[in-house]
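Predict the 3D structure for this chain.
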Amino acid sequence: MHAITIAAPGGPEALVWTEVPDAEPRAGEVLIEVAAAGVNRADVLQRQGFYDPPPGSSPYPGLECAGRVVAVGEGVADWRVGDEACALLTGGGYAELVAVEAGQLLPVPAGMDLATAAALPEVVCTVWANVFMSAGLRPGETLLAHGGGSGIGTMAIQLGRAAGARVAVTAGSDDKLARCAELGAEVLINYREQDFVAELATATEGHGADVILDIVGAKYLARNIEALATGGRLSIIGLQGGVKAELNLARLMAKRASVTATSLRARPAGEKAAVVAEVREHVWPMFADGRLRPVVDRRLPLPDAAEAHRVLEESGHIGKIVLTR
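Done. Predicted structure below.
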């Protein structure tokens, strides 16, 4: 088979489409012939040498894909050769074939093509695991999603609204904020021109955000605490703004707030299967009835993964970038 390989950490040019040994399913796994793969910030970090795959997983980038099942390993009962599926991966999506735990597969939503379905597993599972399973967003609460124009952000807006929450977002351009508004965001903050703490306080009459989904990390930590409501929950899922910051514990205690930081990729297979099962039960029906829709900025050929990474790092896109075969 062919796959995107990383000979040595570096820029987008480090991604090379080359021939490698075929992937093969182990017990409990299925083998997918990849039709398309989603592109994520974690893939960029892996290319740069900062985010190695978990031991025993594929060395190739790609945390989500869609395609057809071409083989099943021992003990797999729910999937058959020929089934179309999309999958949450620990790696290997940038390839013609990838093996994945059967519990991490999802059916392709009715009426959706494979390239679009490839944009769903990582963002949907990440938002669901953090905003709902961990932070427990409830109807009537306020959700602040940083990076509202990203794949994560566009999905967080829609899921937050579907849950009956009020959604606030930050983004770096008015065009991105306009798209966020179309998806249901009510509080629109241009972080290049506005202070999100002050803007959120005004919009919520001093209440703040009950849940914050943060992709920035250290740079925003202190301000996120200030933006939280009493009893608020901050969920950190990215480190684009650094890894180290001071935390005022007295302020956190005064707000009776909590901070969690999670990574989906490194979780044990059983934990990821539990997230996938909840997503299939609670979220997947909303794609079928139109309450949710994927936001795909563009599709590029899989061998052109380097160009996809350049686009992602320029941050001019809205939603997901998808690689297709």
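The mean pLDDT is 96.
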